[in-house]
Design a protein that fits this description.
Blueprint lengths: L3 E7 L6 E8 L5 E8 L19 E6 L4 E6 L13 E4 L8 E7 L11 E6 L6 E6 L9 H4 L2 E8 L2 E8 L5 E6 L5 E7 L14 E2 L8 E4 L2 E4 L5 E4 L9 E8 L6 E7 L10 E4 L5 E5 L4 E9 L6 E12 L5 E12 L20 E4 L8 E4 L17 E3 L5 E4 L3 E6 L9 E6 L4 E6 L7 H6 L4 H6 L18
Antiparallel strand pairs: 1-31, 2-3, 3-4, 4-5, 6-7, 7-8, 8-9, 10-11, 11-12, 12-13, 14-15, 15-16, 16-17, 18-19, 19-20, 20-21, 22-23, 23-24, 25-26, 26-27, 27-28, 29-30, 30-31
């Protein structure tokens, strides 16, 4: 397997954060949208928020790296995932993906809710073509709870619908719109209502194969047709928030399953890592306590055995109230049975939570990129694997470096998975892949559903874009 840089984009500034989605320009071809700033991403949590030193920008590029337009969103837009989600989605059916994002028109008040709007951009010109007020249902909550915004898109019997959402930990609000932006439905899930809160990821999928997409709002599966709850895993027991929700199909029985790693509502007697079946019923559970922060599913065992990873975050408070992350606890399971599992190349000091699973060569087994950024927990040593790609046996496949933007099948016409990385000081973004990959039947089966292609358009919302959480699904 030979990894190659298959695309490069010059963003022109030192980079602190980058997000990206694909954009279809209709008969003008395919483009790539970047949302970026020299300031790292800002979180609304009071213990993590800091004041930006740079603004957030949009830039649209051709696949060949030509910049088509740039928009600086200005000082009223806080450069953070939860403040400014975005989506590329063809709602009006003209084969051109509109760009949707949360803007703030109040230049004097970055936290203004009155000034916040859902804005639509024409990707052909970069100009605004529509705005509507952003719902303010979370206004009464704490800062960390108020500014948790999502935008998603899906299909109801082939008709596109747009979804806007607010809230994660307390009251939660979801609104759905038809192609003409008429509201199709709106729901509120109150803080005291039974069932899970939302997750940091929001996969959209036709989970039950009825021709209607659903959104995983945490462990709650919500129909995009009318907003009804299809089911909610552990509805009467679990009222917390899970960091990770991963839907996937088990090839052995053909059924769908849901892998969940819980952050909140840590109570005695309730485990933190769960697998549910296609009816939302528990299959297995493990780990008795803690904030489960990362997770993934990978085909890395013999005969495409699925391995599940869960990482428990260990935070400590140091001098002056600063939060720091101590070495985490990492758990590996057989994804279908919950029995403990191992990765043969993970020795002492190697943490599976530093791995991002991708199938670069298309053989149906995942390789792993070893994370190379400040979230990595392994120290940089002379023999460090950080920034490298390794196969499921631990063999070195080459150095990539950089910090993650998104992963999965980024370019649909190139075989195998790819990974998009940004290089802060070089001011560029590169996409790496294996152009000579040969896609196996197992790989093709994972991509038979439109899930992967469609969810690439939602990599500007929540944590859909990092750690392979969405791209390892199915």
């Amino acid at each position: 397997m030979e990894l190659k840089c298959i695309a490069e984009f010059d963003l022109g500034i030192t980079l602190g954060q980058v997000r990206s989605v694909p954009v279809s320009l209709g008969d003008k071809g395919e483009a790539v949208l970047f949302c970026y700033s020299s300031h790292p991403g800002i979180d609304p949590w009071e213990e993590a928020f800091n004041f930006p030193t740079d603004t957030l920008k949009f830039a649209l590029f051709t696949r060949g790296g030509e910049r088509l337009w740039t928009r600086d969103l200005g000082g009223s837009v806080i450069p953070g995932i939860w403040f400014t989600p975005f989506l590329s989605f063809d709602l009006d059916g003209d084969n051109v993906d509109e760009i949707w994002f949360v803007n703030n028109l109040n230049n004097e008040a970055p936290f203004s809710l009155n000034g916040r709007v859902l804005e639509r951009i024409d990707p052909l010109t970069g100009e605004t073509t529509g705005r509507r007020p952003w719902p303010k249902g979370t206004a009464h909550e704490s800062m960390s709870h108020v500014y948790r915004f999502f935008i998603a898109g899906g299909y109801v019997h082939g008709q596109p619908v747009l979804l806007t959402c607010q809230g994660t930990y307390g009251d939660m609000f979801l609104q759905c719109y038809n192609p003409g932006m008429e509201q199709r439905w709106s729901i509120k899930i109150a803080a005291g209502d039974p069932g899970a809160r939302s997750s940091h990821v929001c996969p959209v999928i036709d989970f039950n194969d009825d021709g209607i997409d659903e959104i995983f709002w945490g462990e709650r599966l919500i129909s995009l047709d009318d907003g009804h709850e299809v089911f909610c895993c552990d509805r009467e027991k679990f009222r917390g928030h899970s960091d990770i929700i991963i839907p996937f199909r088990n090839a052995a029985d053909g059924r769908m399953y849901i892998y969940s790693c819980r952050e909140g509502h840590d109570v005695p007697g309730e485990d933190r890592v769960w697998l549910y079946d296609d009816k939302g019923e528990p299959v297995w559970h493990a780990v008795d306590k803690g904030h489960m922060h990362f997770g993934w599913i990978a085909n890395s065992g013999e005969n495409y055995r699925k391995i599940a990873m869960a990482m428990r975050l260990n935070r400590v408070v140091v001098e002056n109230g600063l939060m720091r992350e101590a070495e985490p606890d990492v758990f590996l399971f057989d994804a279908m049975t919950g029995e403990p599992a191992e990765l043969p190349f993970c020795g002492e000091g190697d943490l599976a939570s530093d791995l991002i699973p991708l199938d670069f060569d298309g053989d149906g087994y995942h390789e792993f990129f070893v994370k190379n950024d400040e979230r990595s927990t392994n120290p940089i040593t002379e023999n460090s694997k950080r920034g490298r790609v390794i196969d499921r046996f631990g063999n070195d496949c080459g150095y990539i470096g950089g910090k993650q933007v998104r992963s999965g099948k980024i370019f649909q016409d190139i075989p195998g998975d790819q990974i998009m990385q940004f290089y802060p000081k070089e001011r560029v973004v590169r996409v790496w892949g294996c152009p000579d990959a040969v896609e196996s039947d197992v790989y093709k089966a994972r991509h038979a559903s439109p899930f992967h292609e469609r969810n690439q358009h939602m990599m500007g919302t929540g944590y859909n874009h990092i750690n392979g959480v969405i791209s390892c699904a199915m």
